Amino acid sequence: MGDFNMSLVDWDLYSGPDSPMYFAFLHFINNYGLHQYVNRPTRGDKILDIVLSSSDSLVNDIQVTPPFSINDHNSVVFNVNGNDEDENRSSGNLDAFYDYARANKDGLKNFLANVKWDNIFQYCFTVDEGCEAFYDIFHHAIKLYVLIWQYHLTMNLIVWLQRSVTKL
User: Fold this and answer.
1) What own/partner pairs with CB < 8 Å and gap ≥ 24 does 99-105 have?
2) Does the first or last residue of the chain, that is N or C, have fewer Cβ atoms within 10 Å of its Cβ?
3) Residues 6+ apart with CB under 8 A from 56
4) Tens of pLDDT along 98-154?
């Protein structure tokens, strides 16, 4: 979370200009499976203040509100989830994220290169059917070649985040 001043990032496509700074920033986000949640401008017509997370269940209720005090950026307000930890732990549910940085990229590339796409798409008569067939195969490949890390979000982290946000 914070003011990253990456005004030229297209958050719909997770892409930016061809520069070392933008490349490194977007490479980090994409390799660690992070998602950016702020979808309204925070300064002028740009999204400069962002919230990143690898878990959809961790962050919710994102709001962009008018600036606080004399700040020239809009405020970003959101909730950090953690109240269901005991329920998730007792039921065996864990948060998970794909570790794209450690993925078997050669295996993934070979798998996708060897799919008989003509055979797959010959029975797809609409764009939606084609997309669904592609997504099914792609998600299967990701499950085969990308590590999934599972973790419990500890209350210590939640307390630390809440204190850090309160200090802002």
Assistant:
1) 99/32, 99/33, 99/146, 99/147, 99/148, 99/149, 100/30, 100/31, 100/32, 100/33, 100/146, 101/31, 101/32, 102/147, 103/145, 103/146, 103/147, 104/145, 104/146, 105/145
2) C
3) 35
4) 778 788 899 999 999 999 888 888 878 888 888 888 988 888 888 888 887 765 555
Residues 6+ apart with CB under 8 A from 7: 46, 48
Length in residues, the chain = 168
Q: Is the pTM of this model over 0.90?
A: no
Domain borders along the chain are: 2-81, 104-145
> Is residue 62 within 8 Å of residue 51, measured between CB atoms?
yes
Maximum CA pair distance of the chain? Answer: 61
Q: In this structure, how many other beta carbons lie within 10 angstroms of the beta carbon of residue 48? A: 19
Answer yes or no: are the C-beta atoms of 43 and 72 closer than 8 Å.
yes
**Which amino acid does the sequence have at 138?**
F
Neighbours of 9 (CB within 10 A): 21
